[in-house]
């Protein structure tokens, strides 16, 4: 799929068709996302847990962050808000659902560390509070002039909680998160030197920047030509593609009966979106006047609330089967269908 990178560049300069430009760019981002994930893992294998956690937190959602910045520069605030919501939903429902389903086909019952899952579930609840309270306030006080200030204040609190969560999982209570050690056990030897891994990560990020620019530039034309809303493109298409690396890794670990890792990948990625990416975008909006706030539509708020309720129920008993995976994916599909008409 690396062939789509030059094809995307050619389409951007030679073909005046936003659908072709959008399609080739989004297909080009898939292998780039995989390369970013691979390079990040290589760095994690050769550094201490603190540096590893910081690198994963920074580059785990770097492509989505780049796409969001370009979209905000073009005034596509709804696309960015939708992609934030879509990433949270995709990681909680689709990624974990696929992992539980595929893993359950090979293993009748899959067990996981429900203590670590409950910690992550609690962080998700806090994230939901952060993204819903400004929205509820905006719904009940639509004429208020304090909404941007409220959004900024909540974003700072979420960022502080995220930093505290990193310190908790990487320093004071590492024993609750054994999945990171299990990841190292599955690949005891790194395939690249640290310098090579950093070089590949830098190059992949630069290429991702170019492809993200092409992708965002074609969003409005694609939505118009295909009859899709920008919200649907953000919630479903962009959110799935920019997180494709995490989905592939999570399913692979589930097949190996390492569901702990799959759940950690899904929940951690959703937490990073809500507590790291979203506050960072709010801060960037303050600096550059992008207009991004933590005020989402009522349907987006309800969707996130339902998703977190479901995953909290799943994480309660420490065991799951393939049917629960289908149930998670079905909820995601229902929400995606409704977003097509929103």
Summarize the structure in short.
With 342 residues, the protein is mostly helical. It has helices at residues 4-14, 18-45, 49-59, 62-73, 77-106, 114-140, 147-172, 179-186, 194-217, 219-226, 230-242, 244-255, 259-288, 298-314, 322-341; strands spanning 110-111, 319-320.
Element layout with pairings:
Elements: H1 4-14, H2 18-45, H3 49-59, H4 62-73, H5 77-106, E1 110-111, H6 114-140, H7 147-172, H8 179-186, H9 194-217, H10 219-226, H11 230-242, H12 244-255, H13 259-288, H14 298-314, E2 319-320, H15 322-341
Antiparallel strand pairs: 1-2
Helix pairs in contact: 1-2, 2-3, 2-9, 3-7, 4-5, 4-9, 4-13, 5-11, 5-12, 5-13, 5-14, 5-15, 6-7, 6-13, 6-14, 7-13, 11-15, 12-13, 14-15
Describe this structure in words.
The protein has a two-stranded antiparallel ribbon with strand order 1-2. The chain is mostly helical and 342 residues long. The protein is built from 15 helices and two strands. The radius of gyration is 19 Å and the shape is globular.
């Amino acid at each position: 799929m690396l062939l789509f990178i030059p094809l995307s560049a050619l389409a951007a300069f030679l073909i005046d068709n936003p659908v072709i430009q959008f399609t080739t760019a989004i297909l080009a981002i898939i292998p780039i996302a995989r390369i970013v994930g691979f390079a990040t893992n290589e760095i994690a294998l050769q550094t201490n847990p603190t540096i590893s956690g910081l690198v994963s937190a920074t580059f785990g959602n770097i492509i989505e962050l780049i796409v969001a910045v370009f979209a905000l520069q073009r005034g596509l605030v709804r696309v960015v808000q939708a992609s934030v919501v879509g990433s949270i939903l995709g990681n909680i429902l689709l990624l974990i659902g696929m992992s539980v389903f595929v893993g359950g086909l090979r293993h009748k019952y899959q067990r996981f560390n429900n203590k670590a899952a409950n910690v992550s579930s609690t962080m998700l609840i806090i994230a939901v509070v952060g993204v819903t309270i400004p929205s509820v306030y905006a719904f009940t006080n639509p004429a208020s002039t304090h909404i941007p200030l409220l959004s900024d204040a909540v974003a700072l609190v979420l960022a502080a909680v995220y930093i505290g969560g990193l310190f908790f999982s990487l320093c004071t209570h590492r024993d609750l998160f054994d999945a990171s050690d299990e990841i190292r056990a599955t690949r005891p030897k790194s395939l690249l030197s640290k310098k090579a891994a950093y070089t590949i990560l830098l190059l992949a990020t630069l290429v991702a920047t170019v492809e993200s620019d092409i992708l965002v530039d074609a969003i409005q034309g694609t939505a118009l030509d295909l009859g899709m809303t920008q919200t649907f493109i953000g919630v479903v298409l962009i959110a799935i593609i920019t997180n494709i690396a995490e989905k592939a890794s999570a399913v692979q670990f589930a097949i190996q009966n390492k569901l702990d890792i799959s759940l950690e990948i899904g929940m951690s990625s959703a937490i990073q979106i809500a507590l790291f990416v979203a506050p960072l975008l709010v801060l960037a909006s303050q600096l550059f006047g992008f207009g991004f706030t933590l005020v989402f539509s009522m349907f987006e708020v309800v969707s996130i609330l339902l998703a977190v309720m479901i995953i909290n129920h799943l994480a309660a008993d420490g065991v799951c089967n393939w049917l629960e995976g289908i149930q998670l994916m079905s909820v995601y599909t229902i929400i995606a269908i409704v977003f097509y008409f929103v």
